[in-house]
Design the sequence.
């Protein structure tokens, strides 16, 4: 050993001389153990930082620039670097040490989708074209200003929707010729089965914005059956016969589809309802007030589930709305019947998807992002931000179903659990058994964990 490094080492030893050598900060650094607060690097994206537990870092909230350093491994960045995107994806830049393998991309942000701008509104979509893992469902985010109309149309996919803001009027015709009209606002849903013709119009004062879900990832907003498109492509002589009027009546109908356009301001439902003597009202309920459902209250938030049990017409789409408190965890679970298509309404989250065969990958999400979790893959949603997290979990299924890891282990013979997980640490096994003794499904959990090593904040 050369003189200079010797004197450096002596200096370090003098600094920590009160601490036994095997537990000195230097030894802990070499062993990859967390350092006591005063020796620890404050910034988790530095070579001297150690975290064997892969704690989440809210790089946006804390104003940190994620860099590829992990427990002493890694290196700085020399080439071009998109800082904003790095901040939005801290767990891609520096994945947890538990991530492994090649799980395909499971994240998309609507802001990266092409936006179609029309008179009085706009629309953009996240389908299998934008996100190849969006196989079972496709999503559309649409805005209609006051009076703007998404014109009369139908399509082969069923349509489920959640109103994100403002208010909207929906109209439809059911399979038996009954008409349906309803006005909806934030937190309300609609569902139109395959082929059911319908329309949407933004109401007073600022119209509406909503999320549409279609039960096939290959759906495209450009491929719906639109009234004006059909008129424009049918001989006028035939339209004339169909409506028992002279063909001149139809001379000035639109020559191409209108899609989204500024309509006149709508009156009340009572004023607008068709009143002819053969008009009949639908017996079906195509809409539902999701946020008016009584919430299932968990230790870390609120859950509202809407599926064909409480919204019978919605045979192919089931959903859960989650309100997650700061620091809470949507517990480790999986869904046996369908891929999850999640939409983040508020807050910041990380999700690790476990895909068997030793593979797992972590993604970060924020408001306006879409996440996919293929069916049966284990996962959690962790609120890593400084505000509540609001998420929709949406499925191509008639009923919402999930398995809770906590509940499963609590309802499995004790000996088997300990033999499997704690054969090397019986004392830890005792603690674990005590905790799972009364298993409850706590979908959003907010545990109070005492950890002596981790009391220092960044
Ligand atoms: C409607 O939009 C205007 C202008 O953007 C805004 O000032 C107003 O607060 C909005 N009203 C509501 C009820 O959201």
Sequence:
């Amino acid at each position: 050993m050369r003189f200079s490094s010797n004197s450096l080492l002596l200096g370090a030893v003098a600094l920590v001389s009160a601490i036994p050598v095997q537990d000195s900060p230097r030894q802990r650094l070499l062993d990859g153990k967390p350092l006591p607060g005063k020796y620890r690097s404050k910034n988790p994206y530095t070579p001297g930082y150690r975290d064997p537990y892969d704690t989440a870092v809210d790089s946006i909230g804390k104003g940190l620039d994620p860099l590829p350093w992990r427990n002493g491994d890694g290196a700085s960045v020399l080439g071009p670097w998109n800082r904003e995107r790095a901040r939005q994806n801290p767990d891609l830049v520096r994945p947890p040490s538990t991530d492994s393998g090649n799980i395909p991309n499971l994240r998309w942000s609507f802001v990266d989708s092409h936006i179609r701008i029309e008179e009085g509104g706009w629309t953009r979509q996240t389908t299998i074209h934008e996100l190849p893992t969006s196989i079972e469902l496709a999503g559309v985010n649409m805005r209609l200003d006051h009076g703007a109309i998404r014109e009369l149309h139908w399509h082969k996919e069923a349509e489920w929707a959640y109103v994100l803001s403002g208010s909207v009027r929906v109209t439809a015709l059911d399979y038996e010729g009954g008409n349906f009209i309803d006005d909806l606002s934030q937190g309300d849903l609609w569902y139109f089965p395959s082929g059911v013709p319908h329309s949407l119009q933004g109401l007073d004062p600022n119209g509406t914005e909503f999320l549409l879900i279609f039960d096939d990832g290959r759906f495209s907003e450009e491929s719906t059956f639109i009234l004006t498109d059909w008129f424009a492509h049918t001989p006028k002589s035939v339209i004339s016969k169909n409506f028992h009027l002279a063909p001149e009546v139809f001379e000035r109908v639109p020559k191409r589809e209108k899609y989204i356009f500024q309509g006149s301001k709508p009156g009340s439902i009572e004023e607008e309802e068709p009143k002819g003597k053969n008009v009949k009202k639908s017996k079906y309920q195509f809409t539902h007030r999701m946020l008016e459902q009584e919430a299932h209250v968990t230790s870390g938030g609120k859950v509202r589930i809407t599926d064909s049990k409480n919204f019978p017409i919605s045979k192919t789409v089931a959903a859960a709305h989650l309100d997650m408190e700061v620091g809470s965890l949507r517990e480790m679970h999986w869904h046996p019947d369908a891929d999850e298509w999640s939409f983040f309404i508020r807050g910041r989250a990380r999700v690790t998807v476990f895909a068997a065969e030793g593979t797992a990958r972590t993604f970060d999400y924020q408001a306006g992002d879409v996440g996919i979790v293929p069916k049966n893959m284990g996962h959690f949603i962790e609120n890593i931000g400084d505000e509540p997290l609001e998420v929709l979990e949406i499925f191509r299924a008639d009923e919402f179903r999930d398995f809770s890891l906590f509940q499963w282990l609590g309802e499995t013979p004790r000996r088997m659990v300990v033999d499997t997980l704690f054969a090397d640490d019986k004392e830890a096994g005792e603690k674990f058994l005590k905790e799972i003794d009364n298993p409850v499904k706590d979908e959003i959990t907010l545990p109070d964990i005492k950890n002596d090593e981790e009391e220092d904040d960044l």
